[in-house]
């Protein structure tokens, strides 16, 4: 992989320093994305994971993920550093039905009532990620998804000096989405979701003032 990156860097320098034409930003981004995809595949192959030869590549990838223990709660460090998350190859991202975002990373959660759970993080702006919780069926295909933490909400709708927006997932697989008022030192609103038998995320209760 280091050879691939080095050769690409040399090619970029040649083009920009006297080649037939200068590489456009779009072409450079495409080449860098291609290198990143090769790097992810190489890492997976070192783990014995070969998506191209797998009958069910999503299952193979999911089984290779690190597992995040429960309970799990939002912290600034968690959404910034994404401990235990690993890169998601393009072949897998195509299953996720998610628009936008870059540098996707994922981690698995313990299984609940037959539902396999996975958190997907996607970069919305430099170093800032939104997090989505997915449930998977018996064939390891996504059934439902729930936004745990959204960067755009933090920037556009919530004053960070007034409110904290965070999530938690209990050991009983209750998902809490909470807006907390710093000035009033209390929960402003809370939604609680659970996973039903069809592996859907359903709203259990909602309260607000």
Low-confidence stretches: 2-20, 26-37
Helix content: 25-40%
Q: What average pLDDT do the residues reach?
A: 75
Structural class: alpha+beta
Biggest sheet descriptor:
5 strands, antiparallel
Summarize the helix and strand pattern as letters: HHHEHEHEEEEHEEEE
- The count of strands amounts to 10
The N- and C-terminal alpha carbons lie at a distance of: 55 Å
Total of helices: 6
Percent strand equals 35-45%
Report the radius of gyration as a whole number of Å.
20 Å
Oligomer: single chain
Write down the overall geometry.
globular
Strands ordered across the widest β-sheet:
1-7-8-9-10
Task: Write a structural description.
A hairpin with a 2-residue loop joins strand 4 and strand 5. The chain has a 5-stranded antiparallel beta sheet with strand order 1-7-8-9-10, with no helix packed on it. Strands 2-3-4-5-6 form a 5-stranded antiparallel beta sheet. It is built from 6 helices and 10 strands. The chain starts with a helix and ends with a strand. The longest helix has 22 residues. It has 209 residues and is α+β, with helices and mostly antiparallel strands. Helix 1 packs antiparallel against helix 2.
Task: Note the main attributes of this structure.
209 residues; alpha+beta; five-stranded antiparallel β-sheet; 6 helices; 10 strands; globular; disordered N terminus
